[in-house]
Amino acid sequence: MMEMPIPKLVASLAAPAVLSMLVTSAYNLTDTFFVSQLGTSATGAVGVAYAVLAIIQAIGYTLGLGSASVISRLLGEKKSEEAGHTAAAGFYSSLLLGAVITAAGLLFNEEIMRLLGATETILPLAVEYAVYIFWSAPLMCASFVLGCLLRAGGKAVLSMVGLCLGGVVNIALDPLFIFTFKMGISGAALATLVSQAASFAVLLFPFFRRSSMLHLNPKAVFRRGKVYGAVLKAGMPSFCRQGFASVSTAFLNGSARAYGDAAVAAMSVVGRISLLVISLMIGLGQGFQPVIGYNYGGKQYGRVRKAFWFSLIVGTVLLAVLGAVCFFFAPQLMTLFRADDAGVIETGSFALRAQCVLFPLQPLIVLSNMLFQAVERPWQASVLSSARQGLFFLPLILILPGMLGLLGVQLVQPVADILTAVLCVPFLIVFFRGAKRRGAGPEGPAGHTGRES
To answer: Which residues cross the membrane (predicted)?
Structure first.
């Protein structure tokens, strides 16, 4: 972590994470694709239920990335026992909180779907789909945590295998359950539940075999109460990011609802396509984050700078290319989902193109957030992680549709992206000026051991 050349190190850790994120996003997109064959209302139902998935991801990533961030620094400081306690705390907490989501979701399913923006025609389908999603919550939360723990412990390939297996299982089972077994939209959700169980089993296996340097000893859960504070502090940016993603999805569905099921379905498809592209950057960031944590913990501030700029350049070039491709083929991409609904194609094509233009800003946004999370700057990381889907998106979704109608709904996310990218710049300038004062050279250790304020 502190000796391998930065480009090789980041690439070796990011490649499995990128593949994992791509497969995860692909099976979300696959759900939408197969369900879209059932009709426009069914497509909208998946979009409404996505807010539930975002809540589950918020819990999973809060505990997973929070634990991984703390663990990376502890391992960089040679504190392996404390790292093991942190791993156990994150894992068992995820199972417990996932069970709470299951209980609440099954009790208040219909009320939650209405709150998340379901129309009267979408509501019964959303309720039907969400049942299995709520059942999958403990497994899904814990799988996110296990994947992050394996990456923090240097087992990025094992993390990739577990997450990718779940994605492959989901993609294979979707058409079988939906069409062959004639389960309809419930089949898509059941496929997700089965795939999460498969991922969970594979990701947990290395911990039973002790092939990971981190151990999930239940006795460690109650040994150090301060571990939970450290995990939540480090993971709060992830909670803000994913939590606001759920809230923003609900507000977006609510605004689109005024223009019918076609608008809700169109924005749902656009969200899935955009997420697939942006998942590349999130995967790169997940590979980049342990490098930052280890080297910051080891006071190798020059390597922290180098890892950031290398990842930023690679990510910007990659997303610029993908953005151009998606921009050009936007109508064709929308046609894949609802070829017989001109309203979905027209609304979605414009919204997708508006987001594609700004894809090159995503590396700056994602890496800035993950940088501050990895170096334990909680308030900076929380502000940046809240900005895109919260601080900027929520006021805009309340203002723009009232001013511009459906056009306002389509432009909310792109405008929020611009404002978030601008906000990142002053935070980065302050941080790297401080890091430059501390570094002894482009690759050498810092000459000053204190931490910048």
So the answer is: 49-75, 87-109, 129-150, 157-179, 185-207, 264-286, 307-330, 392-412, 418-435
Say if 445 falls within a structural domain: no
Instruction: Please tell me the total count of domains within the chain.
Output: 1
Cα gap 241→315, rounded to integer Å: 19
CA distance 285 to 241: 14
Asked if the structure places residue 446 within a domain, the reply is no
Residue 446: strand pairing partners: 439
Question: Would residue 1 count as lying in a domain?
Answer: no
* Spatial distance between the Cα atoms of 229 and 403, rounded to a whole number of angstroms: 43
What's the domain range around 119? 6-438
d(CA 396, CA 383) in angstroms, rounded, equals 17
Collapsing DSSP to helix, strand or coil, 155 comes out as: coil
What length is written for the chain? 453
Question: From first to last of its 453 residues, what are the pLDDT tens digits of the chain?
Answer: 778 899 999 988 888 878 877 877 777 788 889 999 999 999 999 999 989 998 998 899 899 988 988 887 787 777 888 888 888 889 999 999 999 999 999 999 999 999 999 999 999 999 999 999 999 999 999 999 998 898 877 787 888 888 888 888 998 999 999 999 999 999 999 999 999 999 999 999 888 776 556 778 777 676 666 888 888 888 888 788 888 988 999 999 999 999 999 999 999 999 989 988 988 898 898 888 889 888 887 888 889 999 999 999 999 999 999 999 999 999 999 999 988 899 999 999 999 999 999 999 999 999 999 899 888 787 898 899 899 999 999 999 999 999 999 999 999 999 999 999 999 999 999 998 887 777 644 444 433 333 333
In a domain, 447, yes or no: no
Taking a C-beta distance cutoff of 8 angstroms, is the pair 147, 200 a contact?
Answer: no
Rounded CA-CA distance 391/379 in Å is: 14
Contact call for residues 107 and 71 (beta carbons, < 8 A)? no
How far is it, in rounded angstroms, from Cα 103 to Cα 28? 23
- Separation between Cα atoms, residue 340 and residue 70, nearest integer Å: 50
